[in-house]
Amino acid sequence: MTEAAISIRNITKRYAPTGKQDEGKLALDDVSFDVPLGGIFGLLGPNGAGKSTLINIMAGLVGKTSGSMSIWGFDIDRDRRNAKASIGIVPQEIVFDPFFTPAEVLDNTAGFYGVPKSERRTDELLAAVHLSDKADAYARSLSGGMKRRLLVAKAMVHSPPILVLDEPTAGVDVDLRRQLWELVVDLNKRGVTVVLTTHYLEEAEELCDRIAIINHGKLIADKTTRELVAMGREKVVVLTLDRDIDVAPAHEAFSKSEITGDRSVAITYDMDRMNAGDVLTLLNSQGYSIVDVTTREADLEDVFVQLTSDRAS
Ligand SMILES: Nc1ncnc2c1ncn2[C@@H]1O[C@H](COP(=O)(O)OP(=O)(O)OP(=O)(O)O)[C@@H](O)[C@H]1O
């Protein structure tokens, strides 16, 4: 048994033009982390951070420039076959022949992976993704959400212990996102280690037990979701005042101050430098009386902005 589901060591990827190894885009810069067994792991980062590059290296679609990676204990260079057999990847884009039915899509993919006919799980997989009644419909007649679910089933035909989803919910409406995540949680409960990238931070916070953040090709955080959220140094206080306010109050410990209504302001402040009482005192000293106060803890989105913004140290 392997210790980590995926182990990534000093991975660097430069998209270099042929014969010019030192030029071109450095998409990953010395990235190392482990995806632990059995959890739901979030890989986050702004657009262009390098997430898809890392997933494509796992999938064997992109070659790394240096470093090493093992999947389920199998080195991707020395044991590519077993590494590949240990992972199922749900790509960002929907890719299958529209003239095949879902049952055929799964059967053909299983054939591609060399799964013997007697061991194919087409019916079981279609049931798992709630597509049994569409088994014999043309893939082109499926809704966007159904196609996404079929992609998840397709990634699971060879029963890999690891499932990787590259932004599966981009452009998918709220209900379908929920359905897809329920499916992912269900697979995870059955023992599948899940890695996902998403732009919806609240979903990452809800679903993932551990999160790595990549920014400009560098790993900038690799922590449990709880630890990451606790890193939020900022707090937001929303104040309702006794009269209209024209100019948002300013202070050097405020990272953001905005008028949210005729008589209300939302102030984001650094918890290390002041507390909510100090904010109220400051507003009082400027002649305002406070009618109502609410505060909000930093969430993953706040932490993400802090870590990936250029002002982050
Ligand atoms: N085939 C390629 N040739 C040259 N540069 C590339 C290639 N693929 C990606 N890049 C560059 O590498 C960097 C990382 O891209 P990547 O697609 O891995 O980012 P990402 O984090 O997945 O972004 P997104 O969230 O937008 O999908 C980007 O600057 C991108 O332009």
UniProtKB/TrEMBL annotation:
Any GO MF annotation of the entry: ATP binding
Keyword ATP-binding: yes
Annotated SUPFAM superfamilies: P-loop containing nucleoside triphosphate hydrolases (SSF52540)
SMART domains, sorted: AAA (SM00382)
Keyword ATP-binding listed: yes
Pfam assignment, any one: ABC_tran
Domain ABC transporter: from-to ranges: 6-241
Keyword annotations of the record: ATP-binding, Nucleotide-binding, Transport
UniProt-listed InterPro entries: AAA+_ATPase (IPR003593), ABC_transporter-like_ATP-bd (IPR003439), ABC_transporter-like_CS (IPR017871), ABC_transporter_ATP-binding (IPR050763), P-loop_NTPase (IPR027417)
Official protein name in the record: ABC transporter ATP-binding protein
Organism whose genome encodes this protein: Croceicoccus ponticola
Lineage of the organism: Bacteria, Pseudomonadati, Pseudomonadota, Alphaproteobacteria, Sphingomonadales
